[in-house]
Design a protein that fits this description.
With about 230 residues, the chain is α+β, with helices and mostly antiparallel strands. Helices cover about 35% and strands about 25% of the residues. It has helices spanning about 20-30, 65-75, 120-125, 135-140, 160-170, 170-200, 215-225, and strands at about 5-10, 40-45, 55-60, 80-95, 100-115, 130-135, 200-210.
């Protein structure tokens, strides 16, 4: 299964009194897709992820904005509760089978963690968290991009499609385009982070992924490499 990347945000004054209002402001910053510009679903999850959600809304027919989503969340205001919103945002992705670039809507999951939810997971996962989607949208596949570019990023038993991809990227112009499109995704992410810092009393943020030891350093390196 492909690794995911995450944005985690902690605010200075986070509490049960402030979290819904701040969640609304967090949602306001989300760079929603041009073709899917409304939120899709709200799930209210109590205690921990193993529990059955206590409320779910299909937001697509409601055309609900951040204020409306926050109002629904506030109906179940508790410190042991998480509020999970599904949306989409536009990212560049390389289709290995067609060998073409596409900028299309990708899943974006936005979560507010109550302080007592899941044994206090907010302390490590953030008061607010965004599941950004697949890590390779921002880091490239298997060390393909410099400065940590791999000479052979796939093993000897690679799938034929992956072999075709590696051969395609062996051409400098194709690799440059891969770098440029990945850089655009990173820039969009960083612009969003700046918007969050303007909208909320941010204490700290963290970019984290399942496959990178230091995702922030990796993104900075890809962004600055020419």
């Amino acid at each position: 299964m492909a690794n995911h990347a995450y944005l985690r945000v902690w605010t200075r004054d986070f509490s049960i009194e402030t979290m819904i209002a701040e969640f609304a402001r967090f949602l306001t910053t989300a760079p929603l897709s041009a073709s899917h510009h409304t939120f899709e679903e709200l799930i209210v999850q109590a205690v921990d992820p193993g529990e059955t959600p206590i409320a779910e809304w299909d937001l697509r027919p409601l055309d609900a904005g951040p204020a409306e989503v926050a109002a629904m969340a506030a109906l179940h205001l508790n410190s042991d509760t998480a509020y999970i919103v599904s949306a989409r945002w536009d990212l560049w992705g390389f289709d290995i089978e067609s060998l073409k670039w596409q900028r299309k809507p990708e899943p974006l999951i936005l979560t507010c963690h109550g302080l007592d939810y899941d044994d206090g997971v907010a302390a490590t996962a953030g008061h607010f968290q965004a599941d950004l989607g697949f890590e390779h949208f921002f880091t490239g596949h298997a060390g393909m991009l410099p400065p940590a570019a791999a000479s052979n990023p796939f093993n000897s038993s690679e799938h034929p499609v992956e072999h075709t991809f590696r051969q395609w990227m062996a051409t400098s112009n194709n690799l440059k385009q891969y770098h440029d499109k990945t850089r655009e995704n990173i820039q969009q992410l960083f612009h969003w982070l700046e918007a969050i810092e303007r909208a909320l009393p941010v204490e700290r943020t963290e970019l984290w992924s399942e496959g990178e030891e230091n995702m922030e350093a990796r993104l900075d390196a890809i962004l600055t490499q020419r």
